[in-house]
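Thread: "does anyone have the structure for this chain?"

Original post by V.I.:
We have the sequence but no experimental structure in hand. Need at least a predicted one for the grant figures.
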Amino acid sequence: MDVDEILSGLYSEPGRQNPYPWYAALHAWGPVSAIRDRPEHHTVVAVAVGYDVVGSVLRDPEWRKGAAPGWDAQPILRTFMSSMMFTDPPEHTRMRAVFAKTFTPRRLGALEPVVVRVVDSMLDRIAEAGAGGAEVDFVAGFAQPVPALVMADFIGLPEAELAWYRQRVAWIDEFMDVAGKTAERLDRANHAAEELTAFYRDLIAHRRRCPGEDLISGLVEALDSGEVELTEDELIGNLIVLFNASFGTTAYLFSNGLPLLLSHPDTVASLPGDVALARGCVDEVLRMQNPVHFLARAAPHDTDLDGVPVRQGENVLLIIAGANRDPLRFPDPDRFDARRSGPASLAFGVGVHYCLGAAVSRLEGTVALPRLLARFPDLAVTRTPVYSGSLFLRGIDKLFVSTGG
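Reply from O.Q.:
Generated one for you, tokens below.
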């Protein structure tokens, strides 16, 4: 198969369900490959799967994200473009500096008891639902509510609003898929952005009247005092994107990771009490089954990317999930090894856009997975997992398990 045939296969239903053979096929063509059979005016001209190439592009701040034409006419794109995740320096640098001050070791340390409380509460519910051998949907009963409740506590969202909020997160996530830019999905994403913006305006006004210890209260105080260079629209855009990114990736860390872990019973048996092993499991799950598969960057000038010419403004598709299985950097890349040495995965990106919530997600995984498997040593998957079908944010949406209770 040539590169264009591989990409066509990747976008097919079998490719969406299991893209890794297609990534391996791209590796056979080298770290970077030109895309030749592409629609006229399509600006994505190459695809990169090599770990070193993908990492070098992400580390180079001159490779820009860029903005879609007409972005200011769409509420969802205006929301994205008011956040640090979708902007380039200097705007990105200014906004990131504000939020970086909130992700301190002290705040993360204070969050760990919250993670423990939320996890144990969900485990109690799973035990009750799974009594007598009944099947439990692990995604609905654990993988989704744990990060949602933790982020709600961290940011300062009312728990009663979470079900409403998460539906709007889902509408935004489906639009972000590479095949998600349909008119119907755009309408839903625009509606979600408008409703979430109104929701945060009301919440910010309430925090001005009744401040607490949460992230929103601290940011509103800094904003109103003039301590930070941030508009209220930028505050709202970043809060929307921060919750979406932190919730989705951590939920898929749990649901993607559980079948992987259960297929290695020796590792599972050693997890309780071994914090280093727990961290290794989280890192290896993120390497092998990282939720975010694709990113794109535009060339700052005419360049040669590992032998492939790219003109200024043209985009390169960076396959993060393929780079994380680069056989040149990860020997036997399809083998799970929680004690693997070598380079860090690119699951959370690298460079100026490195995921700000990575530490929170790793904390949740390191705390939750050992507690889950210690509580239910006979946990077993009872049906074939159902994947999202997305090639941007890929993960298991349905995972039925038995607790053995």
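V.I.: this helps a lot. The chain has one domain: 61-292+347-402.
O.Q.: and The CA atoms of residues 106 and 112 lie 10 Å apart.
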